[in-house]
Structures are given as C-alpha cells and as structure tokens.
Amino acid sequence: MRLNAASKPVDGKTARWSSYRPEEHRYGIVHLGLGNFARAHLLSYTEDALEAAGGDWRVVGASLRGSTLDSLLNPQDYRYTLLERGAETKASVIGALHSLISGREHIPDVLSAMTSPECRIVSLTVTEKGYGLAGDGGLDAAHPDIAHDLSEPRSPQGVIGLISAALALRHTNGLPPFTAISCDNLPHNGRRVREGVLEFARAVYGPSLALWIESEAAFPSTVVDRITPTPAETTSALARAETGYDDMAAIETEPFRQWILEDSFCTGRPAWDAVGAILVPDILDYERMKLWMLNGTHSLIAYCGCLYGKSFVKDVMADPCLNKLVTRHLQAVSSAIGRLGIDLDAYAEMLKERFSNPEIAHATAQIAMDGTQKLPQRITAPALAALNHGTDFEPFAFAIAVWIVYAERWAKGLAAYEISDPQGAIIREALSQAVGDADLLRAVHHSFPHILPAQLMSGNFRAALKENMSRFR
C-alpha cells in the first residue's frame, strides 16, 4: 500500500486528493534546492493553483548536491503527503511534483530541463549561503561554486552559474528567458539574484547576453513564510493514518502559509494569486517586516534554546522568562520598523501563537544553522535602524550577545551542541583564544564586521553588549 500515482482515496480517510490528473499536466517550473520547505510552500501553492486553474505548471525538483529524497519519492511517482499540524491535522496528497533530479553528476540534466521550451520559471531554495554572493551584493569569488563556474562555465555547479548558463543557451537557441524566483530569506532576494547573474553573464558571456537578460528576464523579489520542521519519526505513521497509504516522504508543516511576490513575470505563472499568494508592486515593507520580526525572533529563540537546552521552539515559548524575551524583542523590532500601514502588533501576536504551536517540533539547532549568513539582515539591520530612529536597541544588543556567547562556548569546546556554519573554522579560530568581554567583542568585530559593524562598537550599544555578554558568560 505504498502511495503512488495509482493510489485513490480510501473510505474513512479524510486526506484531500487532487481533483485534476497530474500526469495530464507538463512541467513549467524547475526548482533548485528541493527540500522540505519547498515541498510545503511552493508545491503547496502550485498544487492549489493547478486545482483552481490548471495549466502546465508542475515542478521538476533539483538537488544539486544530491539527497536521499529521490529514493523516497521515485517509488511513489513523486506523490507525497503534506500534513498541516495545528488544533487539528489536515492531510493533502500533493501531485504537483513532476520529477526530481539529484546529484552533481546529473546537473547536465537540470540544465537540459531549464533550457527546454517547457520551462518558464526557475525557483530556488538554496539558503543564504548557497548563492555565492558577497555582503556588498556582488559575486563572492572565494565561494567554491562561483570560483568553479567562472573558470568552467560550461559545467556549472552553483545556482548563479547554472542560471546564467541556461539563459545563455536559451538566448542562443532563440527561446525567451524564464522568470527566476528566489524563495530564500535574503533581503531584496530577486534583485540580488539578478545582479549576481548579470555580473556573471558579463564576465563569462559578454555584454550582449547581459543586455538581453537585463531587458527580457524577470527576477521578482519574494517573501515566503511557512514553518516546516524536519520530519519526525512519527510523520510516516501519521500520513498512513490520514491517507491509508505508506508514505516515506511525508512532511509536516503549520497551517499558516504566506507568499508575497513582486508582480513581475516574463513568461507567465500559475494562478498562485487565486489561492492566496499576494502580488504587489513593491515588496520592501513586507520583506523588512518578515525578516526582522519572524526570522530575527526565530534566531533569538534558536540561540537561547541552544544555550538553555531547549530542543524546540515550542519549548522556548513554554518557558515564561524566555517567552518574555521574545515579546520584548518583537516590540523593539516593531518600533524600529516604524509605520508601515500594517498592524505590526497583530502580526507579533500571530507570530507568538505560531511559535507556540505544540504540534510543530521545529528544532532550535536547525534554525541556529548558518548564523553568520543570517544575522546581518535579521538582527544587525534592525539594531542599526533602532539606533538611527532613537528607539529601544537593548533587545538587539541582547540577541547579538546571545549569539556571541553561543559561538564562544562552542569554539572553546564548552558546548553540548554543534555549530553548523560555513564560517565555522573562522568562528573557532577567532573566538577560541579570546579572553574577557572586551577581547571577545574585538574578535567578533574583526572577523564578522557584517554582524558587529563599527556603528555597534561604541557608546551605549557597546555597553549593553558587554553587560549582556558578561551575564551570559
């Protein structure tokens, strides 16, 4: 009774099944970095859009590094169960995933899918570190994928090189470009991907291709939101209870989902706006609200959780003292943002309710990953805004201090947790020998100025940093 394309609804089971026939719809989207979040977010919206309006918009997933997901999904004809966990559990069988291409050795197949006339959108969830972009927005020549792809552009390994190569081939073959959609928590994500691709195209393919991309391709910025933890040991059993079928690739997520996109597409799109996605002319306000309030508070929760032995976000929220710190942080972010025409108090209350969901086991260690890539836009940016606006900056000093002590304890071999960060070797080298608060602050400022810039190294903010660090240490 393994879930597959021939499976049908089982009497007495409440799972929702596709009313359309997935195999009658070709693909129109290639998604780079297919993982749990993309399957809970992009595929969920696309499934609903296919239900609402049809179209050839199924998704070819790609895992450029390789994963075990293909071995789980292939026997199921790429069907899987999406479990929404809240006051009640709702299950949906997703049919919008067309296929999955996995592993470096199959990147040529990914490139072939991206250069087919069927492909009209390339979407991405590769995490902040996966783009190979420097802090100033340009290409990071030291990033392994960027360095490789600049020297061997005909066999790209990274997303910027792969998108550029695909657009170059489409231009040569007389095909229109595709729309590239980043679904990662990068500020101005569409603009940054566009600038990275244009820089790469100029360097490798010359100005003619860059001009074509600049005038014809589309790179809308987006805000994505849906808490999606790593599947638990009980996830498969829950999927079977809801569907009647064995599903080795089932995932759990929260009932809430949000997708805000700039309304800029060059070759069409699914009817996402008919199923809850919001299309706007300018995404800046939404982007700042989500990055600073949800993601920034998530980071605070993660590092507090790791330091205090709280395995899941819900455990942090259940601690009265830590819960108060979360409330204080959200209030400070709201003040730093200022007036948006959005009810930030209501948004903050909704976030606390979502963070407290007892059915979602979102690991603090998972959120804590890649802190050197996440903190500049999640914590440092609102800290600088608070200083500029004269609003409460103390919670941001607290959050940075938490991360510093979290990193220091690991660097000195004193932690019960592990750090997963692309700058892990630098963290260990910079912080393992630091003695005293002042020495530790200097080490962080020197090694990670994007987290602790000069503006935060003086006056009252520095004093607040030292006070909080001393308390934690």
Polypeptide structure, described:
With 473 residues, the protein is of the alpha/beta class. Helix content is 47%, strand content 11%. The chain contains 19 helices and eleven strands. The strands form three sheets. The chain has a five-stranded parallel sheet with strand order 5-2-1-6-7, sandwiched between helices. Helix 5 (144-151) runs parallel beside helix 6 (159-172), helix 10 runs antiparallel to helix 12 (320-337) and helix 16 packs across helix 19 (459-472). The relative contact order is 0.10. The mean pLDDT is 96.
Question: What attributes does this structure have?
Answer:
473 residues; 11% strand; alpha/beta; 3-stranded mixed β-sheet; 5-stranded parallel β-sheet
Low-confidence stretches: none
| Spatial ordering of strands, largest sheet | 5-2-1-6-7
Distance between the termini: 54 Å
Put simply, the count of helices is: 19
* Whole-number mean pLDDT: 96
How many runs of DSSP E, i.e. beta strands?
A: 11
Question: What general form does the structure show?
Answer: globular
SSE succession: EHHEHEEEHEHHEHHEHEEEHHHHHHHHHH
Beta-strand portion reads 5-15%
Q: What structural category do the secondary elements indicate?
A: alpha/beta
Helix content: 40-55%
Spatial extent as radius of gyration: 23 Å
Mind describing the biggest β-sheet?
5 strands, parallel
